[in-house]
Amino acid sequence: MTLKNNLKDKAAIVGIGETAYSRESGRSELDMAVEAADKAITDAGLSSSDIDGIVKFTADSTPQGELAACLGIPYLRYYGELGPLGGAACGLVIQAAMAVSSGMANNVIVFRSVNGRSGARYGSGVVTTRRGQGTSAFTEPYGLLVPGQSSAMRARRHMHDFGTKLEHFGGVALAFRKHACLNPKAIMYGRPITMDDYLNSKVFFDPLRIFDCALEADGANAFIISAADNSFNSSERPVFIMGAAQALPAGLGDRGGNWEDNGASRLAPELFASAGVTADDIDVVGFYDHFSPVIITKLEDYGFCKRGEGGPFVGEGRIELGGQIPVNTSGGHLSEAYLQGMNQIIEVVRQLRHQSYAQVEDAELGLVDSGDGSGALILRR
Amino acid sequence: MTLVPFPLPVPSLDNQYWFDKCKEHVLVLQQCRECKAFSHPPRPNCTNCGSSDLNWVESTGKGTIFTFTVTRQPVSRPLVGRTPWIVVEVELEEGVHMISNLIDVDCDDLQIGMAVEVVFDQVDDEITLPKFIIV
User: Which residues of chain B does A253 touch, with a Cβ-Cβ cutoff of 8 Å?
Assistant: First the structure.
């Protein structure tokens, strides 16, 4: 059946808010969520009495009702959540956009607040708490415990199938570190790295090194989604949700081996069709970079280069500021902070408002995604 | 120093038979009686056509390394002392992919495409896991 995605230009991101990023916030996740939400409400030109919806990550410890209470909102018209784990950000924007465009609510907060470094760390395998149950009965008993190991296995297969090199993964890490060095909010601001640093860094999950892995961090992000026809009432610079798509491959990808059978490659055609644009029209990208090899496969999945050519593509500086398609201009998860796809959305909004520390000249259209392509958005100025 | 084990599997009604056969040192796979597709891990229905008419068949236990990773840093403190360990994705002759470990092999000698064969590792009275050796 043909898809009739009617979400185009129906909703906008009207406000963004973020706390500082750190390795030890010393604050509760609720406290940080309130700061990010407050900033987003102010940025949107609204007051908390205008907010009537909140959506959250299933993984987030902060209940919608607690955040509402701390913001002085007496009740919510719309609330929802989305899992699993880290890949929820774009899907939550889609939930919120559907809520405001259908009239279920007027202004919806999307937030994420996590002590991801000082609290329970994704990279330590304690976050999932699956303990050998369900499908993990067929993975965890063999020591496949954290997402980085799966990413490493996929990276090795890409190297085998297409001749991708360690230096290509390093090219991703270096590009994002370069961007982070332009962004005073990035945890790795002021800490440039060279290819030698990369190649000599500690191997975590062969072939992945420490510089290939997301920077676990403490912090919170929030944005406000409003219906497009309301968005100019308050906000000086709404960013419109021009296209949106989600994808959940069946069976957690256990069929394996097919580069065309993953979230990003499945949703890409529907994403571009929903916005009526192509990859060539995109000025700036925010990819969820939990590990550097996913940038190479996503460039292929979304059609910025041909299948198998992602390695050489990043090796030639094309994803850096000033290159063909700048990716993760705030430093991304590798070098700004790992806020599970939320900080990529904030940076693309800043780009489209022409307020980034690493501004892409005349940026009009941005693409942002979550997880391994669990959700994606095309945003326009 | 006592090594902390990886999480042991908690068998469910959908896969208890698979673990029971592992205890007998037999690797089984589900095969759909309608479309003949093999699938893994065990589920109530065929992942190719949705049929619930599934048959347990014995796998040849032979396959090749589809991909692998050598974990060099313990992912959490209790796993210090276990590194390095090899997680492998095996492509069995029946076409299905299975996560396992390679044993009795040097981490530096591994390559995608190497032929492997199943062996069984009795972890305790309840759990025996299929692992693989290079052949």
Answer: none
B5 lies in a domain? Answer: no
pLDDT of A338-380, one tens digit each? 999 999 999 999 999 999 999 999 999 999 999 988 999 999 9
Mention every residue, 6+ apart, whose C-beta is less than 8 A from residue A293: A151, A152, A154, A155, A158, A164, A169, A172, A208, A212
Residue A373 · residue A218 · CB < 8 Å = no
A251 touches chain B (CB under 8 A): yes
User: Is B90 within the bounds of a domain?
Assistant: yes
A232–B contact, CB cutoff 8 A: no
Active site residues of A: 288, 338
What global pTM score does this model have?
Answer: 0.95
State how far the alpha carbon of B62 is from the alpha carbons of A68, B58, B65, in Å. Answer: 57, 11, 10
Q: Where are the domains of chain A?
A: 11-118+214-380
Which residue in chain A is spatially nearest to B96 when comparing CA positions?
Answer: A255
Instruction: For A148-187, write each residue's pLDDT tens digit.
Output: 999 999 999 999 999 999 999 999 999 999 999 999 999 9
ipTM surpassing 0.90 = yes
The yes/no answer on whether domain A11-118+214-380 falls in CATH 2.60.40.1120 is no
What domain range is B84 assigned to?
16-134
